[in-house]
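Complex record, two chains
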Amino acid sequence: MSAAAPLRIHGAALERGGRELWSGLDLEVEPGELVAVLGPSGSGKTTLLRAILGLERLSAGSIEALGEPVRRAGNRHIGYIPQQRPLPRETPLRGRDIVGLGVDGHRLGLPLSRKKDRARIDDLLEAVGATAFGDRPVGLLSGGEQQRLRVGQALADNPALLLCDEPLTSLDLANQQAVVRLIDRHRRERDAAVLLVTHDINPVLTRVDRILYIANGRFTLGTPDEVLTTETLTALYGAPVYVVRAGGQLIVVGAPDADEAHHHHHDEDHA
Amino acid sequence: MNWSDVGNALFGGVSQYGAILELVQNSVYAGAILGLVGGLIGVFVMQRDMAFAVHGISELSFAGAAVALLIGVDVVSGSIVGSLIAAALIGVLGARARDRNSIIGVLMPFGLGVGILALSLYNGRSATRFSLLTGQIVSVQSGQLGWLVAIGAVVLVALLLIWRPLRFDSLDPQSAAARGVNTTAVSLVFMLLLGLIVAVAVHIIGALLVMALLVTPAAAAMRVASGPLSVPVLAALFGFVSAVGGVLLAVAGTLPVSPYITSISFLIYLVCRVIGARRDRTTRAA
């Protein structure tokens, strides 16, 4: 228990269309801790992140983010990295503008750029290794390059709490590793708490402190060694599920979570 | 129809050009501001995939104007009321792209039908009737032109004030919401501004041709530029050149303004497409 925990969730329950997805969730994420959220489609992982951001209501319980109860919709002091979706080719923005949206995208008033903001954008571009393509049209950048820019956008306010919603989906292995390194470095340098929703634990497995596994209306919280075992997951799903380790990778076999279904689910979750 | 008729229609007014221009001064101002604002707002229309919505709003704006004409109230106010009703309906009921298109598809023929009914019952000058659909800025009274200019200016200022949140919301509504942008409010204000400028455009180029100033200039700009400043600036410039150029050419003859405006804006688009395609080829070859 720490008063300084950037994220404290107490007795949280979530309903969707009159059906309870889960209830009684308690979770505290300490500074510098990386917690991965796993679970099949429709288990309310994305909704949990949106509830922390104030964009969705819990059916019961409370959330405290960065020391304050969640009340208003959206929170600029929380970093948020969404799933990689290719930006339209003709998007009239350069790489640095994507990062810039994190710096001044919320501001009303005449869109004049300030010197201080430009300097901040330069720093962020450098931090995520995007300086080289910062001035190129964003629609022509690769998925990995676009995702680096989104990380830069999320880090604009040097957040003590970082929420990542499937940040690695549809990236190749090298880019997955690059994005994970960026997230991990921010966590260490800022001592930030990170909550990361993913359907594939492998890219982050070596860096994860704890795992919240949601399935079947229940959940398990613990270290990877505690949660990712055949026994734990079989008990959680109420069906035989096998955890296989091979070549430093970890594969969950038998869990009812098809990859294709997952992508659809993600879109619907936001609708 | 012979060639001298054509010549007369095109250039009959050249000898008294200066005098005519003085008479239509306010039309030039109205065209200028509509061109600028249409180009700017068009960038967001493209990014938010709302070209069809523009068309839908303009048909209801036409209906509002036609009903106003029939019952003898101010036509500009009528078009604004129609526009805003359409914008609000599309904004509230059509938050999702798929819903939006079906809402528009339902509203559009209804709007046109109401408008045509009102015009058939109307006994006044038939030129006024026709102009709501295909536009005739020169027939708009100067008091009303003042209103059109004022509305355009208000939309321009409001658009600049919400520029950054609107840009964020148009690109990535989820991240914008996560960072505290009130995306619902931004979307509704955008629809409101779009409704207002469509109402202005209905009087200048007509309900059927609104897209020539609200979509084409931005689409052209996006073919040749990609910067956050260059695209809106070019779009505004293209809109300005089309609208003002159209008015200036039209007063030299007896033809209506709209075909000039639509032709200029289409020509600009064609040129931009060619330039864009050529540039793509060289980048790929390089």
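Note: The first helix of chain A runs from residue 45 to 52.
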